[in-house]
Design a protein that fits this description.
single chain; alpha+beta; 6-stranded antiparallel beta sheet; 6 strands; globular
């Protein structure tokens, strides 16, 4: 058994992989990696956070965690920061450094490309890197 300094080669059927195909594969890898981000300490205890909006009439949000998981928040039928209202519906909140990254995570976790930064819709007490993934924003 001899050894050779030649690089290993693979025989192909003549089909070339385009840069676009490689980029598409990389695009799918990034969201999967983003889903595995560290969970902030406050996200560990479900029900510990109630988020109130400064926008009049916007529903309270109860964070039930963990971050970057489907249906990890509940919109409540209260708009005063008490989270005492009944459940209206669940939604998904993700943590990401920017809108594009949040959109990638939302696509993987919540199966939607509809993303809104919570601070942009009046939830000033929520960390600035938190985004809600859903089709309609209460």
């Amino acid at each position: 058994m001899g050894t050779s300094n030649r690089p290993a080669t693979a025989h192909t059927s003549g089909t070339r992989i385009s840069r676009r195909t490689v980029a598409r594969g990389a695009a799918w890898t990034a969201p999967l990696m983003a889903v595995g981000v560290a969970v902030p300490a406050f996200a560990v205890s479900p029900g510990s956070s109630c988020w109130d909006s400064t926008d009049v009439g916007r529903l309270d949000i109860r964070f039930v965690g963990p971050i970057n998981t489907r249906n990890n928040v509940t919109f409540l039928n209260s708009a005063d920061g008490t989270c005492t209202g009944s459940d209206v519906r669940a939604a998904t909140v993700v943590q990401a450094p920017n809108y594009d990254a949040a959109r990638d995570v939302c696509e993987v976790v919540a199966f939607t490309l509809n993303v809104q930064r919570l601070r942009d819709i009046g939830y000033a007490s929520v960390p600035s890197d938190h985004y809600v993934c859903e089709s309609a924003f209460p």
